[in-house]
Amino acid sequence: MKSILTSLAIIFSQIMAFSQDETQTWKLYKSIDGVEIYTMESDCRTDNAPAQKGIIIKVVNTTGDKLKVEWDLSVWYNNEKQVRNVKDGENHYSVQLDPNQITQGSCEVPYGALYIFKDFITYVSPTKLTDFSLDNIRITKI
Predict the structure, then answer these.
(1) How many domains, the chain?
(2) Among 6, 29, 64, 79, whose CB has the most other CB atoms within 10 angstroms?
(3) Residues 6 or more apart in contact with residue 134 via CB below 8 angstroms
(4) What is the DSSP letter of 123?
(5) Quick check: pTM over 0.85?
């Protein structure tokens, strides 16, 4: 009986690890002028914010130049676009990258340019991210 429970525990932990790895996969969002932008959906559980699902962004500079990467974020919650005029500056983000540098968001600070709120995990919320886009992406050599 003990060996059966141990076997079930091992199988369950492997299934959980596999399903967690599956949701933790970076997906190429766009490649432009030597910059690759990736996104990943992640479950974020931290002490400084309620448990939530988010989209984490990773920006990779594949060039030998120092770059500034800028974009305007558009989001749709419950299939309704929340930002009508992305060029107004409110949802304008930028990161600076040294040659061959990678920067990415995290769950530790789930706000800012490299994190998009999707939904809460711990309680039911009527507001859910249904789509997003990074518009007007600009790459500038610094």
Answers:
(1) 1
(2) 29
(3) 29, 30, 37, 57, 71, 72, 73, 74
(4) S
(5) no
